[in-house]
Design brief:
Length: about 650
């Protein structure tokens, strides 16, 4: 969030592509195209002075992100029936904790906005982790050794001059662009440039090479007389329309002026062009009386994994629009002809009803008398996007009322390859007991395992860093057991702001190691306690944490229609990980009078993918309707399951 000085502070759920409703098209109006007001190249990050903060002096409070007008997204006073509620922990999963170390500590700002990005190992075996908090940046290796910093963020933009060099305005975000330089990788660093009018700005830095300690291509973009609050960035590396996607909430004073959904010219920034374009839209819908209602609180899609979206695939922006819908826009940038860029949508995707935790505000209990802010009026960073052989998936989360406490609501959305029609595949609200769980971040690894990192607190538990996870073989909509990555030993007593966002990442080296950063307190302070700490921890889920033979399942198509008295096929692909194995396939969930058969069973999984044709046959008296069928594979060590929608008519 933006900063100011205050001195001396006291599918299983049914796959519902068909249920998603397209509201209208091109509601963002004409795009606006801007260029940076200044550009430069920084010194090496490692050559910049180390930042210091004298404890107890000049604490900078970061005000809450400005609230948006009510959108009917559900109050927190009374919880509706939550059809996605998981009120007890799921099965025990192997969660292989690997590395844990301390990140940047109290920097003079509160809250810290902790986030990280994780890079590939280079030829010498060096792998980098970049952590950012409000006002500072540091570089670690994957063993936890501090390699550079902490450095004041503003010092990186010193060659630009102006607001970027003169203040640490907050909302920092770091991304690792794994596809850049033919897989060599680049780093993207951003923060707000200014928080007071008449001119507001965004500061962007793109590393000149794969080492985050080197120099950066620097840019400053103005937003004129509107504050670009709560910016979030995603990497979208398609072949010819690649972009750094960004979302903002725009304010004039306390008045909400709508979101901005932007695409920055990724290749121009990587190549150190002096004037890369930024293309932006203002999304919203028109009422019958022609009144324009702006949308807000979006996250941009952010690619994980080695497979990029197909060329021309639009980037996705997502929010929750009501107490039972997610809203999606699709952004197709064209930097060669910027004014032909399109924003299509919105498309509203039905989800289980929910109520915003704390009515979107402050109610998170600690073992003291001060509650913390839930920031539950928005989806939480990131909108993690991944491409599989037969579909693309997105995972995301937010905080909801769960009985008398707060839980993490999470979603997986899927779209078949060759389409952009995302629908709800599965959802869940993880609230296994009366503790409060909030400030989450979700991600998915290459095996389809999903993990969520979050903060956990209660009247008897100091705010701690926790995770939960699932494997594809578990029942849809459920998470396994909870793991505490870092126990808290103190409460925050200075200010209700907490985290504002956290960051769960996937290591691009093996695409199965999760890395998470969040804040906690090492101890209670005297009267005022704002000396937060951060932890950085890695873990693997399921057999991703061992060398056990594993496999992944996929099917194409993922939905078939079988008329009575006929048969229809789909192809099941079994891809080996950590060695080949014989995988026995089975099918459940078919209605009366329908039966499955496989052309090959068991299937010997290979690294390139072995296939078996699954044929669903329906006799003339078969039950009609849509059936959520599950295809399960078992190699004697592990089992995985995937869905197949079968319509018998």
């Amino acid at each position: 969030m933006r900063a100011r000085n205050i001195i001396n502070v006291g599918a299983a759920f049914i796959f519902v592509i068909a249920a998603a409703t397209a509201v209208s098209a091109q509601t963002g109006g004409a795009p606006t195209v801007t260029r940076p007001t200044s550009s430069a190249v920084s010194p090496n990050l490692s050559d910049l002075p180390t930042a210091h903060w004298a404890q107890g002096q000049n604490l900078k409070m970061v005000p809450a992100p400005k609230p948006l007008p009510p959108r009917g997204a559900g109050s927190g006073g009374t919880s509706p029936h939550d059809g996605a509620l998981q009120h007890e922990e799921g099965p025990h999963l192997l969660v292989n904790s690997k590395t844990k170390f301390g990140g940047i500590g109290a920097s003079g700002y509160i809250p810290p906005d902790p986030n990280i990005a994780v890079g590939k190992n280079d030829a010498s075996g060096n792998g980098y982790i970049v952590q950012m908090v409000n006002s500072q940046i540091a570089v670690f290796n994957k063993s936890g050794t501090l390699l550079s910093g902490p450095t004041a963020l503003s010092s990186l933009w010193t060659p630009l001059g102006g607001a970027c060099a003169g203040s640490n305005a907050g909302d920092p975000v770091v991304q690792y662009d794994a596809s850049a330089d033919n897989g060599g990788g680049r780093w993207l660093i951003t923060q707000l440039g200014s928080t007071s009018g008449p001119t507001y700005s965004e500061c962007i830095a793109v590393s000149a090479g794969p080492d985050p300690r080197g120099s950066y291509n620097l840019y400053s973009y103005n937003f004129d007389n509107l504050l670009n609050d709560y910016p979030k960035f995603g990497v979208w590396p398609t072949a010819t329309n690649s972009a750094y996607l960004a979302s903002y909430n725009m304010f004039s004073g306390q008045s909400f002026n709508g979101a901005k959904l932007c695409a920055y010219d990724r290749m121009a920034m990587i190549n150190n062009a002096s004037s890369p374009a930024a293309i932006c839209f203002a999304p919203g819908t028109f009422l019958p009386d022609h009144t324009f209602v702006p949308d807000g609180n979006f996250l941009p899609s952010d690619l994980d994994g080695p497979t990029p979206p197909a060329d021309g695939t639009p980037g996705v922006f997502l929010n929750f629009q009501t107490a039972s819908t997610l809203r999606q826009y699709q952004f197709t940038p064209n930097f060669a002809a910027p004014f032909t860029t399109t924003l299509n949508g919105p498309t509203d995707i039905p989800v289980a009803s929910f109520a915003q935790a704390c009515n979107g505000g402050t109610c998170i209990v600690q073992p003291n008398r001060q509650n913390l802010d839930s920031l539950a009026d928005r989806l939480m960073y990131r909108l993690a996007y991944r491409v599989f052989a037969d579909h693309a998936s997105m995972v995301v989360n937010h905080s909801v009322t769960a009985g008398t406490s707060v839980g993490v609501r999470w979603y997986e959305l899927q779209a078949p390859i060759g389409t952009t029609a995302f629908g709800l595949y599965q959802q869940g609200t993880f609230a296994p007991d009366a503790a409060y769980r909030w400030m989450g971040s979700a991600a998915m690894d290459r095996l389809g395992n999903i993990a969520i990192g979050y903060s956990k607190s209660s009247s008897s538990v100091y705010p701690s860093i926790a995770i939960t996870s699932r494997t594809p073989g578990m029942p849809l909509g459920t998470m396994g057991t909870e793991t505490i990555l870092q126990a808290g030993n103190g409460a925050q007593t200075t200010y209700p702001r907490w985290g504002d966002y956290t960051s769960l990442r996937i290591d691009p080296d093996d695409d199965t190691t999760f890395w998470y950063t969040n804040e906690y307190y090492k101890s209670n302070g005297f009267i005022f306690n704002y000396n937060w700490a951060t932890a950085i921890a890695s873990f693997k889920v399921g057999t991703g944490g061992s060398t056990a033979t594993d496999f992944a399942l996929s099917t194409a198509p993922i939905a078939i229609t079988v008329p009575r008295g006929s048969s229809k096929p789909t192809i099941v692909t079994v891809t080996a990980h950590n060695g080949s194995s014989a995988v026995t396939l089975s099918v459940s969930g078919l209605g009366r009078g329908a039966s499955p058969s496989f052309s090959t069973n068991p299937v010997t999984a290979t690294t390139s993918g072995a296939t078996s044709t699954l044929t669903i046959s329906a006799n003339r008296n078969a039950a009609t309707g849509v059936f959520g069928v599950t295809i399960t594979g078992n190699n004697g060590v592990v089992s995985h399951a995937i869905p197949l929608s079968v319509t018998v008519q």
